[in-house]
Amino acid sequence: MRVHLIQDSRGRIVATIPAGTNEFRTTLPGVPVTMKDAEEDALRVEVVPEPLEGQTVHEVELPPELESIDEGPELLKALLDYRISAGGARLVRR
Question: Which pTM does this prediction carry?
Answer without folding.
Answer: 0.71
